[in-house]
Amino acid sequence: MASFSGVQRLVISIAVLASFVTFLDGTVVNVALPAISRELGGGITTQQWVVDAYLITLSALILLAGSVSDAYGRVLVMRVGLIAFGIASIAVAAAPDPLVLIIARAAQGAAGALLVPSSLALITATMRSDVQARAIGVWTAFTTAAQLVGPLMGGLFVDYLSWRFVFLINVLPIALNLILLSRLKLAEKPSGRRVDWVSGALCAIGLGAVVFALIEQPNYGWGSPAIWMPGIAGAALFAWFLLRQRGSASPLMPPWLFRVRDFGWGNLATFFVYAALSLNGFVVGVYLQQGAGLSATAAGLASLPMTILMILVSSRAGAWAGRFGPRIFMTVGPAIMAVGALMLLLVAEDFDYWWQVLPAMIVTGLGLALTVAPLTAAILGAIDQEHSGIASAVNNAVSRVAGLLVVAMLSTIVGGMLDLDGFHSAAWVTAALLVLGAIVSWIGIRRNPAEVEDAVTPTSAPSPAAPAA
């Protein structure tokens, strides 16, 4: 980060560490699930809710958290989120039974919702143009690396220590970030705008109920009142939330945001790309253990090439996007990832990681490194500083919901069983989603952040009454 000023390096470090803990926790848990169920009991139901309790609260509350971040200040919200996340992590590690564990995981997700939008909003609020794009590239490299290296770290802890240590990984970076925050002298001016808590409740309960129905329907069936009742009620509440945004004085998801071309089309691309990433990560991680017979640590090591490529290329891709515009990278990147997904069709009963999986990991990692930073820069670079928290929250919510939905539909995608045929079916669906992401990006993305600095300043930003085209 030699090209950044001292304050900018501090802001980037804080943003990276704050996001790192939430991204890491979302992935590191997967390899710990068998050990958790062996010790605490509950079988597959416990395993599902250990993951889902975190994702549901994180996804459902992230919009509310973005609005709170803009209203009360990013630094304050981040500090509260870090402390709450640390306490919840300790509670998870000390959980004596599945119920306490699941409640603590839900608390982790709620705290994580405070961290992600406020951390990225710190970058978008303090840097603009090509500097912002390069900073987002650095942020993307390290936070995405957290998602990719998580299974490896989790496998090592599970194999050589205990699953409980998996959830204590975050304590050290949280403590370090609280120290860094105390050194950040940022002249923030919280907007003081009213937070629409009713909309926050509608979004959280509505989305949570819909996700519950999608996840649990394979266990109960669509005909069960335990499924269709919360599904219908959740959809109605979420529809009410969307309608309320049109007339709210302080909307959590301002409708005019989606009429800003790069933001609207960029979030559609986000939906397809992150749905594909979530499906690919889940299926590869599980199949390598259950189908190919690898250990938890070996399965985590399988994604290491993607991690290395993200660290090496992502910050450069962010700088290139600031210079040449994000459109070409958001088109080529997902297309390359689609090729990588199709290369997983080489996986056979006679398993060989080096020839059947490694080439796909390398190709997918290269496409991912070219995609993520330009995608983030295009979306957030199109929105003014005052609304950066909401914009970041909306984009994060879209990516999380995409992952929730595609994993909830996993049984349908793989044909009921994650055997070799199911693995190949998931590879086809992953590739199709990535191709859709590439097409959407080519059609919709237009702006070069370096050329439209005036268009995204607070004085010329679009408002709900005068949205940009």
UniProtKB/TrEMBL annotation:
<feature type="transmembrane region" description="Helical">
    <location>
        <begin position="76"/>
        <end position="96"/>
    </location>
</feature>
<feature type="domain" description="Major facilitator superfamily (MFS) profile">
    <location>
        <begin position="11"/>
        <end position="449"/>
    </location>
</feature>
<feature type="transmembrane region" description="Helical">
    <location>
        <begin position="327"/>
        <end position="347"/>
    </location>
</feature>
<feature type="transmembrane region" description="Helical">
    <location>
        <begin position="264"/>
        <end position="288"/>
    </location>
</feature>
<feature type="transmembrane region" description="Helical">
    <location>
        <begin position="353"/>
        <end position="380"/>
    </location>
</feature>
<feature type="transmembrane region" description="Helical">
    <location>
        <begin position="401"/>
        <end position="420"/>
    </location>
</feature>
<feature type="transmembrane region" description="Helical">
    <location>
        <begin position="163"/>
        <end position="183"/>
    </location>
</feature>
<feature type="transmembrane region" description="Helical">
    <location>
        <begin position="426"/>
        <end position="445"/>
    </location>
</feature>
<feature type="transmembrane region" description="Helical">
    <location>
        <begin position="102"/>
        <end position="123"/>
    </location>
</feature>
<dbReference type="InterPro" id="IPR011701">
    <property type="entry name" value="MFS"/>
</dbReference>
<feature type="transmembrane region" description="Helical">
    <location>
        <begin position="135"/>
        <end position="157"/>
    </location>
</feature>
<protein>
    <submittedName>
        <fullName>MFS transporter</fullName>
    </submittedName>
</protein>
<keyword id="KW-0812">Transmembrane</keyword>
<keyword id="KW-0472">Membrane</keyword>
<feature type="transmembrane region" description="Helical">
    <location>
        <begin position="12"/>
        <end position="37"/>
    </location>
</feature>
<dbReference type="InterPro" id="IPR036259">
    <property type="entry name" value="MFS_trans_sf"/>
</dbReference>
<dbReference type="InterPro" id="IPR020846">
    <property type="entry name" value="MFS_dom"/>
</dbReference>
<feature type="transmembrane region" description="Helical">
    <location>
        <begin position="294"/>
        <end position="315"/>
    </location>
</feature>
<dbReference type="Pfam" id="PF07690">
    <property type="entry name" value="MFS_1"/>
</dbReference>
<feature type="transmembrane region" description="Helical">
    <location>
        <begin position="227"/>
        <end position="243"/>
    </location>
</feature>
<keyword id="KW-1133">Transmembrane helix</keyword>
<feature type="transmembrane region" description="Helical">
    <location>
        <begin position="49"/>
        <end position="69"/>
    </location>
</feature>
<feature type="transmembrane region" description="Helical">
    <location>
        <begin position="195"/>
        <end position="215"/>
    </location>
</feature>
